[in-house]
Amino acid sequence: MARRVALVLALGVFVVSLTAPASAQQPKRGGILRIADREAPNLDPHLSISFLTHSWANMVYSQLVRYAHGPEQKHTADFTVVPDLAEKWEHKSPTVIEFTLRKGVKFHNKPPVNGREVTAEDVKYSMERFRTKSAFRARFDVVQAIDVVDRHTLRVTLKEPFAPFLNHLAASTYLAILPREVEEKLKDFNRAEAMIGSGPFMVKSYQKGVQIAFERNPDYYMKGMPYLDGVVIEITPDAAARLSLLRAGKVDMGHMWGYMVPEEAKSLKQTNPEMVMTPTMTIGSGKLYFRTDQPPFNDVRVRRAVSLAINRKAWNDSINYGEGCVDAGPVPCAMSDWKLDASKMDPAKAKYLVGYDVAEAKRLLAEAGHPKGLTVPMYHWPGYAPPWRTYYDLAADDLSKIGITVEFKPEEYGKYISTTYLGKFEKMAMGPQAPGNEVDDWLFSGFYPEQPHNRSHVADAELNRMLLAQRRELDPKKRLALVHDIQRYLADKAYYVYVPTSPQYITHAPQVKGFKHHDGFSLGHRLIFTWLER
Question: Which class would CATH give 3-252+506-532?
Fold first, then answer.
């Protein structure tokens, strides 16, 4: 997308002018894109942190600001913040940001909103609702005040300088802008008829357990966009069934983001050589996590033993064809701008991030008072896409070799995402962490007390000091140095045990054009620029 960008650093103004994107191929309007994927557990973007909820919500709702997408983006992890409902913003001081909204942006023309203009009052209402209801409301702990200056101007005052703030506003639809009267008249947003926003698509129909259909928003503020007439998501819980639908040409994509692990992709390419596949290292992290506030995992020796028991290289070679990333945490591999590789750390500490040593693991367990081993539960959701089911089995097998017996505790998704995923479990659990688009999402959110992703219940005073310092540092170079120091500090703590990150093959049928992967849950933003060559 052609853009004019004027950015005055420090106390400056950020403005982006949007025009229709240039393309090597002329996009065609029309057509229905068909996708097979799972069902969102909740339709309220402020109440659920599920990637499914936010992928659906991003089709319908706008945000104050968003990330660059499609022709706008430089690469898959381009987290440049650009305008959405706000056409510009100005830092009045290091702690005061004033947003100017676009005039004439309309909510969908559905009752009870009926296509009225989006105003600063709507943004304030949505921000206040987010900070009251969202499991990620801690992201707004830094907000001191939200004030409506006039119909199209909003002022946000922070308690202190906060480097991640604009990024948090842009991240997916956690901060979706909702119309107040929907909640007043329909009582909640967890129903299809309540999904009324100002985003690129509108809900056309929803058959629970069957499909959800979206249609183009004719009044979307980006003139002429999106290209598609609509999008249909065929609700297909089983990964094998999704792959079968894609093979048979009944859907254009077998995942909302086009994800396919190497094993699936290589198999599909044999039967369907026409499929478009782009291997990509996406932002993500898989890990074993622990109740570090309770025995036995309050003992660092037990956690280190678990880490040394995991044969990461063997996992990567056997499951990921050697194409994944072994050095997977605490900052994920794809966040190369921030990541400090284990090879650049003290080897005596780095071994607890990437090493494998069964004898040393057994010694540590015995030293910690468990010479005969342990029996521990592993809470998890079995429905994650491959290779997760294999990962659970591999972890149990590796741990058995040092005397730790794993008792599998599979959970239904709704229970898992509202309990275990948020740290409400006993002893041990395993699973992925949803993509975080700011390094603070992986560090502060994962390690600071009472944060939603602090699943291991970490409480470390020295680490807390470091975590706070990096988020208050507005100088990018100084902040990077602090982030590297945090990674060095965490190397041997084993608060989490990271497993290899699988590459994803972004896969779709050849008639799908203009679809560019972008890390995060922003399905709607990707599909603004997607079109079909039928």
Answer: alpha beta
CA distances from 66 to 119, 271, 434, 520, 524 (A): 17, 38, 18, 11, 11
Which of the residue ranges 15-29, 415-429, 448-462 would you say has the lowest mean pLDDT?
A: 15-29
Average confidence score pLDDT of the chain: 92
CATH 3.10.105.10 assigned to 285-499: yes
**Predicted confidence (pLDDT) at residue 12 exceeds the cutoff of 90:** no
The interaxial angle of helices 262-271 and 239-247, nearest 10 deg, is: 30
The model's pTM is 0.76
Residue 8 has pLDDT above 80, yes or no: no
Among residues 24, 136, 139, 150, which one has the least CA distance to residue 98? 150
Query: What mean pLDDT is predicted for residues 255-274?
Result: 91
Exposed (0-12), middle (13-18) or buried (19+): which is 90, by Cβ within 10 Å?
A: middle
Domain(s) labelled CATH 3.10.105.10 in the chain stretch across 285-499
Domain with CATH 3.40.190.10 in the chain: 3-252+506-532
- 243, 300, 263, 519: which is closest to 386 by C-alpha? 263
Evaluated on CA atoms 240, 386, 410, 448, the torsion sign reads negative
172 pLDDT band (50/70/90 cuts)? low
Q: Is 305 exposed, middle or buried (0-12, 13-18, 19+ CB in 10 A)?
A: buried
The bridge status of strand 531-532 relative to strand 86-93 is unpaired
Please report the pLDDT score of residue 24 as a whole number.
58
